[in-house]
Structures are given as structure tokens and as C-alpha cells.
Amino acid sequence: MSGRVYPAAKVAAVLVLALATGACARGEARTAQATPVRGGEVLSFADLMKPTPTPSSSPSPSPTSSSAARSSSGSNGSRPSSSGPSAVQAASGPANCPSGVVSGEVVDFAAGRLSEDSRDGVAQWSVRVTGTVLNQTPRSIRDIRVSVTIHTDNAESDSDGATISKWVGRNTTANWRAEFAEYESRNEPDDKDVTFRVSGWSWGDPALAQCPTPSWSS
After folding, report:
1. Of the segments 23-32, 67-76, 172-181, which one has the largest average pLDDT value?
2. What 8-state DSSP symbol labels residue 191?
3. What is the DSSP annotation of 161-189?
4. How high is the pLDDT of residue 117?
5. Which of 149, 154, 160 is nearest to 123 (CA)?
6. Measuring CA to CA, how many Å separate 168 from each of 108, 137, 160, 163, 194?
7. Closest CA to 180 of 109, 106, 107
């Protein structure tokens, strides 16, 4: 072709015939599509032979599993996180804590006058109280603390304490002693005026430091 310009209607007819002939030659069943031509427009044969662009198909979205999306989030939309150690287990202390108590008793009591009665009839007394404690737990204990109080009629209370720092094995006893250097009373104190109790103790094994130590009182 030499670039000759043909009327638009004639060129369109030639193009349709050429497309149909080419399809038959290839043995393919295709429907020819005519290139739309506006009325009065003059086109060259080369322009009409240009392939008409076909719209590209948009890529289909990748499938997303809704069940997988739901399983990766909680009911409130937040992602589940792996929980740490249980808070109840952390606060409960060591498992299998020993049980039992520490009991005790007064073994001996002695009182002596230190001074003569004053004008109001009050005298000073030296008092000594001794006793024992018994470890009724299945483990060794230490730092057993005892408290002794004296209170006679018409007198104020006075307290003293003692600590047994050595280790005391299970079903084993240990001795304690409390002294009152200047107890003031009109009447001479006796063992009926004494109150004794175990105020505290500790487990010998440091691994049991968080275990409770039940108290005992007489």
C-alpha cells in the first residue's frame, strides 16, 4: 500500500472482510469486531489494521479464610497472648507446706523481794520464769519466740520475752527463761499470775520461708 486515503465506510468493509478471511485461514471460529468509525472520518488502511486494545482482566483477590481470621483474634478483636504463670500459683507459696504447731509450758517460777514496802505498800520483786517448748511439726524449726507476762492483784502488767535461736528438730523440746528484775507489786507474785505463749517461730529450711507458721498460746 502506498498510503492512499480511502473513505471511512469503504475501508471498514475491507477490514471486516480481511479479518474474516484471516480467521477462516487459521481454522478458528472467531467473531469479527468492526472498529467503530465516526461519520465523515477519513482513516488510512494502516490505522485500521492496528489491533484494538482489549481491557485487561483485573487480578482476582487472593482467597482469605474468614475462619482463620477469626481464630487469630479474640471476641473483642484483640489477638490472644500466651498467658504467663498463673497468678494464684505465684501467690500461694511453695507447694506442700508442712503443718503443725509449737506448744510450750511453764516449768518453774521463782520470786524474791528486792526492797521493803514503800509508804503505799508497794515492793519490788525479782521474778524468774523458766519453761519448755515442743516442736510438733514434721520439720526442724528455729528462732522460737516466747512471751511471758506477770500481773498480780492491784499491780500493773509487766512482760518479758525470750528467743530460742538454735534449731529444734521435730518432736523435740527446748528450754527458755524469762526474768523480771524489778517487778512492783503489793503482793508477792506466784505462778498463777504468769501468762505464757509462743509468739512466733521460723522454719529451719530456707525453702519453706513462705510457708505459714501457726501460732500457739497457752
Report:
1. 172-181
2. G
3. EEEE-S-B-TT-EEEEEEEEEEEEESS--
4. 74
5. 154
6. 21, 10, 22, 12, 25
7. 109
Of 159, 163, 144, 158, nearest to 204 (Cα)? 144
Is residue 104 packed enough to be buried (19+ CB in 10 Å), middle (13-18) or exposed (0-12)? buried
Cβ neighbours around 132 below 10 Å, total: 15
**143 near 201, Cβ under 8 Å?**
yes
Q: What is the CATH number of domain 101-204?
A: 2.60.40
pTM as predicted = 0.54
Provide the pLDDT for residue 52: 58
Check pLDDT > 50 for residue 36. Answer: yes
CATH 2.60.40 location in the chain: 101-204
Q: Which residue type occupies 164? A: I
Question: pLDDT digit string (tens) for 172-216?
Answer: 999 999 999 889 998 999 999 999 999 999 999 999 999 998 765
